[in-house]
From TrEMBL:
Protein name from the UniProt record: Sulfurtransferase
PROSITE patterns listed in its UniProt record: RHODANESE_1, RHODANESE_2, RHODANESE_3
Keyword Repeat listed: yes
Record bears the keyword Protease: no
Sorted UniProt keywords: Repeat, Transferase
Bilayer-spanning residue ranges: none
Domain of life the protein comes from: Bacteria
Classification of source organism: Bacteria, Bacillati, Actinomycetota, Actinomycetes, Mycobacteriales
SUPFAM superfamilies hit by this protein: Rhodanese/Cell cycle control phosphatase
Domain Rhodanese: start-end pairs: 13-131, 162-272
GO molecular function terms attached to this record: thiosulfate-cyanide sulfurtransferase activity
């Protein structure tokens, strides 16, 4: 199943898909004002913090995964039904929308794609824009688990990062990986053994994903293909963008949902600094 859809292809199928607007960034987590200022016609606003995370869970990072039951309730509120084709987008180069993509794929929704380039690409294409809030009739989608895509816990990623038979990618900016700065979490650095692979390097200058060949070359140089890959970031959001990029390049990867926010909060977990994995 394709990961991406272009603005031109979406324009031809606008009434045939369910559209989810997942506007959120670390610095501006409330995306609703931007949604109300303009969005794709028919798009339903998705609140990443409320709908795509479970903040009642403690000790599992800043954005623990929602339960299947909670995700099902949200997805029905978005109007999703079994068998629907879904397109997700944001205004952050797909980095928030990828969280919705990953969760829906993990929940068994096979036909879900990310709008390549997101809101900015849609605007550049001259596509129609709406401003009214969309409140759809409740859907009846069935979600019973999140086992459709691989995920690992802290013990699992610790073992993988130290194993020559596995590969762990750190999708955060290189400065955070090295430990030069840490604006959000308790300790600076990275999981010992993890390889720096910043999510931003998946993108072209206009915020679209790089071509398949370029992504494949990038990940091959990092070791993908030689060993199973697990990805983490700060809180399990932008790591899903990395997993989407890997999927575009033809590689499967697991998510460590707790990511650095969980790992760095546990004083018993070791931390490495500097540009090398060890």
């Amino acid at each position: 199943m394709d990961v991406l859809i272009s603005p031109s292809e979406l324009a031809d199928r606008l009434t045939d898909v369910r559209l989810l607007d997942v506007r959120w960034t670390v610095m501006a987590p409330d995306g609703r004002p931007a949604y109300l200022a303009g969005h794709l016609p028919g798009a339903v606003f998705v609140d990443l913090d409320a709908d795509l995370a479970d903040h009642s869970a403690t000790g599992r990072g800043r954005h623990p995964l929602p339960t299947p039951q909670a995700l099902a309730a949200s997805a029905r509120r978005w109007g999703l039904n079994d068998g629907d084709a879904v397109v997700v987008y944001d205004d952050w180069n797909g980095q928030a929308a990828a969280r919705a993509w990953w969760l829906l794929r993990a929940a068994g929704v096979s036909n879900v794609r990310i709008l390549d380039g997101g809101w900015a690409a849609w605007q550049r294409s001259g596509g129609p824009v709406a401003t009214e809030e969309v409140v759809p009739a409740a859907g009846d989608i069935t979600i019973t688990s999140l086992h459709g895509l691989a995920a690992v816990d802290a013990d699992g990623v610790a073992a993988q990062a130290q194993s020559p038979d596995n590969l762990v990618f750190d999708a955060r900016a290189a400065a955070r990986y090295r430990g030069d700065e840490e604006p959000l979490d308790p300790r600076a650095g990275h999981i010992p053994g993890a390889v720096s692979a910043p999510t931003a390097e998946n993108l072209t200058a206009d915020g679209t994903f790089k071509p398949v060949a370029e992504l494949r070359e990038r990940f091959e140089k990092l070791g993908a293909g030689a060993a199973p890959v697990t990805v983490y970031c700060g809180s399990g959001v932008t790591a899903t963008h990395q997993i989407a990029a890997l999927a575009i390049a033809g590689y499967d990867a697991a998510l460590y949902p707790g990511s650095w926010s969980e790992w760095s909060s546990d004083p018993q977990r070791p931390v490495a600094t500097g540009p090398s994995p060890a």
